[in-house]
Amino acid sequence: MSFEEFRALVDRHATVGIGTTAIPGVVVSRMTQGGSQDESSTGTILAVVAQGTKRLSVGGVVHDYGAGQYLVASVDLPVSGHFADATPEHPALGFGLELRPEIIAELMFTAAAADFPRPARGESSPPAIAVGDTSERLLDATLRMLRLLDHPRDIPVIAPMIEREILWLIMSDEQGATVRHLGLADSSLSRVRHVVRWIREHFAEALRVDELAELARMSPSAFYRAFHAVTSMSPIQYQKSIRLQEARLRLIADPGDIGTIAYAVGYESPSQFSREYRREFGASPSEDAASLRGAARR
To answer: Contact, 198 vs 261, CB < 8 A?
Structure first.
């Protein structure tokens, strides 16, 4: 088994950006620009770095990880991050696998999982993002998954087995609690994920924490603590990040009507929207949209 082979396979199959593969749930990435800040969402994913280093910030908490390390995200969070040293000649390379709660739940109810500690009543939720070192066994499994890209006929039969192996190894690792809670339907992390999904679908609506707590089937105080423990931000901060990311996407497509976009994503006044947009992205909406369109043309 060779980390160099893992890096070479990612390098061979990845185009610029994050791209899907013939294996369901598996992505490979090639990032060629370092230093510039990128606003995005994590999704629920295991990401293994083959080359380069990245700094990710969510809710004021910073995560650094590089070649030979992995990151798991069990909740779809708005994040800010950048690659420290990516260039076209030496790109940042990575492997990603979607974390599917239904498969994690199956694994949690096997006899082999009986020794995993179950969350106690009132226990704090694990953070939604965790970083760890890639073990030799995990690297071996991801390498075998990537090799399947050269044997497409084998993918429907072998890929699901390797996916379960990778998930099991992560669940058994030092950061396993973050993944295990994803498979427990009644864990506080799963309840927070349910609310996060609702906020994403209704981001333009006014939020009331007591109504979100009811949706999570928790008391308001317990819900607020759990939400902050999982996401490193309050529900209102989470909603604001989603609103601003959505506004940024709309501005790239139609930069001319900032007021309409501000109202569409839930702001009551364009001036408030512009203040918060500048605070988040470091430029006014019109300046940022012009910069992004120029970068896309280049």
So the answer is: no
